[in-house]
């Protein structure tokens, strides 16, 4: 799929695409996203947990940043909120959609979904801090109106986001790695988290690394080609601009969702939570600094502050997630609550 997507990019670049051509490029884009995450999973399986979840999260974030930048580069004034809408959508999808679906699948299979409260709680705290600092605080600062940071404030937020992300990665992969390993029904860490399948060999791993890079190039390039069609479709339907961010986040996180659900079905709930919260942390901790850097040459404002409705949803998500994570065990009820919050976010995005 990655070579096919690159070929489509080469043939369509610089041309005015008709409806059928846009559809074909869109299919190549979706295929490249799926391929990118598949090859990231291969690499992740080779390095093991919890580093594997980190590889997946970073790969997804690279795709997300590429899509946001390409849309902002040609979106005019309406593109000023694309980064905010996409990052917020990613937080809602990961913390409510992926977590809720994984808990539902895990609880249906084992009655109670078991995970490590220490690791998941720390990850959730990082998500809440990053989301509040980058999406809520700009709505209340007085240095710049309209939900924007001043230059100094944006630099501070970007630097703080990178520091928090680096700190989380160090804790997850080195200092407290055992907090992020899958646990058994009695709460004990599994001794061999990769026992479900043999890891790939060197040749397969390096092949996946190369195809992953090709797929990422194809995703960013094809996104540039189909972005006008996405924006025109949203405008024609009379939908809010925020829907563009929701579409981007849903597209990028769909393969991640499938990976989390597969892990939940194998009674590896901690892996599912690592994927969900790790993606949310990477989405904010890497996307905001990247967009802040790109804003140097991108035209137009960069609006990050959320409106009151989304702030309420974010606050409710933080409270519900804390109550879910603290016990280290969850049932169908917690999964259902998170899915209702996710459904509310999607509905309000289309009908604010």
From TrEMBL:
Pfam families: Na_Ca_ex. It comes from the Bacteria. GO terms for molecular function: potassium:proton antiporter activity; sodium:proton antiporter activity. Its main location: membrane. It is found in: Membrane. The chain crosses the membrane at residues 20-39, 51-75, 87-108, 120-141, 153-171, 206-225, 237-254, 275-296, 308-325, 332-350. GO terms for cellular component: plasma membrane. Gene3D superfamilies: NCX, central ion-binding region. Residues 20-173, 208-350 form the Sodium/calcium exchanger membrane region domain. Keywords: Membrane, Transmembrane, Transmembrane helix. It is a multi-pass membrane protein. InterPro entries: Alkaline_pH_Ca-Antiporter, NaCa_Exmemb, NCX_ion-bd_dom_sf. This is Ionic transporter y4hA. It comes from Streptomyces inusitatus. The gene is chaA.
